[in-house]
Amino acid sequence: MSKPPTSSSAPQQNKPSSASSTRVFYFRTTFRNAIYEALKRRGWKETDGDNWDLHWTEREWMSEVFDSIHLSPTQRVNHFRNQRELCRKDLMVKNLKRHKRQLQKEQNAEADAYSFWPLTYVLPGDYALFVEEYKRYPTSFWIMKPVGRAQGKGIFLFKQLKEIAKWKSDSRYNAENKDAETYVVQRYISNPYLVAGRKFDIRLYALVTSYNPLTVWLHRSGFCRFSSTRYSNDAKTMQDTTMHLTNVAIQKKSETYDSETGGKWSLRDLKLYLMSRYGVAVTDRLFYDMEMTILRCLFSVQNIMMNDKHCFELYGFDLIFDDSFKVYVIEVNASPSMSANTKEDMDLKVGLLSNAFDIVDLEGKLQGNETRVGGFDLVHKGIPIKPNSTSQYTTNLGCDIPDDIVRSTEKSVGSTTNGGTPKADDEKGKRDRSGSKVGITGRPAFGAGGRSDSRSGRKTST
Question: What confidence tens digit (pLDDT) does each residue in 20-32 have?
Answer without folding.
Answer: 568 899 999 999 9
